[in-house]
Amino acid sequence: MDNASLEITNKNNRLFLVFAGELTLYNISKLQTKIETLNLDQSEEVILDFSKVTFFDTASALMVYNLQERTSQSHIEFQIVSAGKDITDMIKLIKMHKDKTEAIKRLKKKSYLEMLAQLLYSKYLGFLSFMAFFGELFINTISYIGRVKHIRYKEILFEINENGIKAISIISITSFLIGLVVAYQSAYQLKLYGANIFIVETLGLSILRELAPLITAIVIAGRSGSAFTAQIGAMKITQEIDAMRTMGFEPYKFLVIPRVIALMIIMPILIFIADIMGMLGGMLIAYKDLDISTTLFIDRFSDVIAAKHFFIGIFKGPFFAFLIAVIGIYRGLGVKDDTQSIGINTKKSVVESIFAVIMCDALFSIIFTNLGI
Amino acid sequence: MKYIIEVSDLKTVFGDKVVHDGLNMKIKEGEIYGIVGPSGSGKTTLVREMLMLQEINSGTIEVLGYNISNINHIQAQELRQQWGVLFQAGALFSSLNLRENIALPLIEYSDLSRKTIDEIVDFKLSIVGLKPNDASLFPSQLSGGMKKKASLARSLAMDPKLLFLDEPTSGLDPISARDFDALILKLRDILKLTVVMVSHDLQSIYDTIDTLAVIDDKKIVYEGSVDNISTFDNEFIRTFFKGYI
Q1: What is the average pLDDT across B70-77?
Q2: Which of the residues B55, B95, B154 would you substitute to probe the A interface, choosing the one with the greatest number of A C-beta atoms within 10 Å?
Q3: Which of A329, A255, A345, A242 is closest to B95 using CA atoms?
Q4: What pLDDT, on the 0 to 100 scale, is given for residue A100?
Q5: Residues of B with CB below 8 A from A247's CB?
């Protein structure tokens, strides 16, 4: 007999439940509905007969246990007959563990208002911790600069190499292509009006002032911001940060400030390179598409593009660098003790630093325009 | 008797989970003090609090005479130079090789010459049983046992009075684990260390520990010698020491 079956007979308000076959979790669902829909109101006694049962698993025992609970709640006699030792043991085991687990109450379901409040509160805590991070960074920077002997030149130079020198090629290529694309698109429009020579103004202004700093910052945010987060996050998981703290090495001095300073030093230089490469890209298109010779281009460039545009672009560099480094490191230090949190924090760090850079750029735009620069 | 660490009436709360409540503990100078308890009972948290890696909610912890919840930056730095910590996974700095790892605190805190520092590093490597050739390896190139030894060497770099060990023998094979126990005992005698250790390794507890503390139900339920543990009735102790008592 493979299938389980259940026969229910009623004699003088005594319910006889005769089980037969293999009672397993694969086939007891039908029996379960039968038992659950059973009307016990009239009965005085429930008798379970297991004489024909060949196999009995924990799911079936749970079913029997639940029935027993029901009967005891409505004060009905409950009896198990002709059950082997296996079956009674199984039911006992269920009973023992049910008693243990019953004490723990299920968590209350939260209302939407509570969830919203919790979300807001966690955001508020996040903001506070970011402020605390800034505070610590500020205090540490002051004590760092106060003692020239303690400045970690080696680390700073290492980070400059890692995050600056090694990024030169990718930044050059990206900004060259950006210069190319901008020039190509403008060339088409300018040709319509015969205003070919104005390509110099278009490119000079847009690349020096906005595009080169922004593209550099975005590449660095993706490259170094994510690296900072992942590196520091991994150090947190392997308890290296804790080890530093117990040895009295302030992680801010060892890990944070060298990275921030390195990025702030190298960023203007990278922007300068991006400027050159962007203009080269533009010059190429101007020569090919608009027949403007390089000599003419450069002559025109020095005539119409004031140096202030170049300096504004460079000036933004340290600010962008600061934002990228600080967000990357803050996210790295925010990594919890699991690997998933490295992924989440790295993602957040890149997205947030690009966002912060663009916000900062917009702010500068407004300020400089209002100052008439 | 002088106490190296005194914890009184400690309370720790994470969110709405109370980890410690009214926990008291006294660690004598020169002893090996073991902390055991079921998982989640807050052993590591307690050690982290002693190490100033975690804030306490109420109560006091005094380490080497400093009250750590009321300590200024300079005192904290002094205290940190008097202890050594061996983390569970070693926590060697992954960007530095072994020699640089051990030399780091010496370079930072002393004005010793490079040559002297190298000699100190070689000595520390040899007392934990590593060869001078290993010094140029990076943490990722070390086996589990070597990592623990190297990390021990680093924690001993500044000749601390107090050594914290977080599960020193976990993840080691039985032979390396017994070697490590013997090493701890030897170092305690040579360097006059006080050792605080969190452990799950019964053999290591019997072999090394002078005073055992059992954390259960948010406080210390037993503090005393390992030999008297059988007289004490507690569910965790009965299960943990089953077969030994």
Answers
A1: 87
A2: B95
A3: A255
A4: 67
A5: 80, 85, 104-105
Residue A108 in any domain: the answer is no
**Pair B76, B96 in one domain:** no
- Decide: helix, strand or coil at residue B54: coil
Contact criterion met (CB < 8 Å) for A243 and B53: no
**A-chain residues within 8 Å CB-CB of B90?**
238
By CA distance, what is A158's nearest residue in B? B95
Contact B37, B214 (CB under 8 A): yes
Bridge partner list, A47: A16, A79
* pLDDT value of residue A169: 95
Question: What is the predicted pLDDT for the residue at B1?
Answer: 61
Q: Tell me if A242 and B53 make a contact (CB, 8 A cut-off).
A: yes
CB count, 10 Å around CB of B55? 10
Query: Would you state the pLDDT for residue A107?
Result: 64
Q: For residue B131, count CB atoms less than 10 angstroms from its CB and return exposed for 0-12, middle for 13-18, buried for 19 or more.
A: exposed
| Residue in B53, B89, B104 nearest the CB of A246 | B53
Residue B28 is assigned to a structural domain of this protein:
yes
Shortest distance, CA A65 to any CA of chain B (angstroms): 28
Name the interface residues of A facing B (CB cutoff 8 Å).
234-235, 238-240, 242-249
Closest-CA residue of A relative to B163 is A246
Report how far residue B115's alpha carbon sits from residue B130's, in angstroms, rounded to the nearest whole number. Answer: 19
**Residue A352 included in any domain:** yes
Predicted local distance difference test score (pLDDT) of residue A1: 44
Please give the full DSSP string across A303-339, using - where no structure is assigned: HHS-HHHHHHHHHHHHHHHHHHHHHHHHHHHT--SSH
Q: Which domain holds residue B15?
A: 1-82+161-171+191-245
Q: Is the pLDDT of residue B125 over 70?
A: yes
Residues B94 and A257: their CA atoms lie apart, in Å, by: 19
Beta strands in A121-160 (DSSP E): none
Residues of chain A with pLDDT under 70: 1-2, 100-107
Q: Are residues B151 and B205 in the same domain?
A: no
The total number of structural domains that make up chain B: 2
Residue of A219, A216, A192 lying closest to A267 (CA atoms): A216
| Residue that is written with structure tokens 């010496």 in the block | B106
- For residue A214, the enclosing domain spans 152-371
Residues B123, B165: one domain? no
